Amino acid sequence: MSLSPADGAAYWLRWQVFVCGALIALPAAAAAALLPRLRRAAPPLRATDLWVPCWAPLHPGWLLGYRAFALAAAVALLARLLVGHGLAVFYFYTQWTFLLVTIYFAFATAISAHGCWVYSKKSSRKADESHGFLNDDVENRGLSTSVSVEMKKDETNRLPSYFEQIVNEKRAGFWGRCMQIIYQTSAGATMLTDVTFWGLLVPFFYRDKFGLALVTDGMHSLNAVFLLIDTVLNNMPFPWYRMAFFVFWSCAYVTFQWALHAFGGLSWWPYPFLDLSSSGAPLWYFGMAIAHIPCFFLYWLIVKAKHTYFPRMFPHAYARTV
Question: Which residues span the membrane (predicted)?
Fold first, then answer.
């Protein structure tokens, strides 16, 4: 007999619920237990890692400009979706993930703006010191000419030399660490969202009744595009142990869905494989739990490939300081 959440206790006391509940609780508990130990062994995050590009000729303002553009585009897409469908769009994991990506770009834009302000102050101070040195020796024409040549070289190399000087700067603060956590959680959730949508939902569940819409379905591609471009530009590390936060994020979404159905807030499941009425539900939950591993490590491999191959392909432009 097929049951729905509207049937009350009969639905929630089925054996599938307890098995699926364990498949949610156990990964979250394991991630919570391992995270503090793994975090202590990781190198600290520097404040400059958050806003300095990994490309030496690229001024930090370019990264700021891109992040501001991505933030504006993400906010516009979310606003258009909310105007058309209301808060009900947040029944879906896709919109949870897109909101998280938007929050990341809000953090990144603010921190990049602050970093550019710090950079401009240091650049101005260096320019003032250089001009003072030049004025002290202006009486000697030969020396003045020599210094002028050196000054031109210094102007050309100022940005790369600045990157070399920032390597040992102070550690990132609380908000900087939050930004990195949101970045990595967004990366894993984006991979899971897009792979599930294009590889599972569209071909098998929504094949006949699904119509591709520019806004809703564009989110399943634009979220990855926004993050991947930022990854190509930024200098942020991507420690694998932060997959724990990705696990927490997905567990929070499923818990949210269960609570909505248990208290009568929703009578249908946004994703068919979340329905607990089927005897195959534990297999779906187990499969989705396992899918978190390749989805997160796919993005980790992208970052790893960037740090491995870009220095070989662009030895004079790529200036990784991670």
Answer: 12-35, 68-92, 98-119, 245-271, 283-303
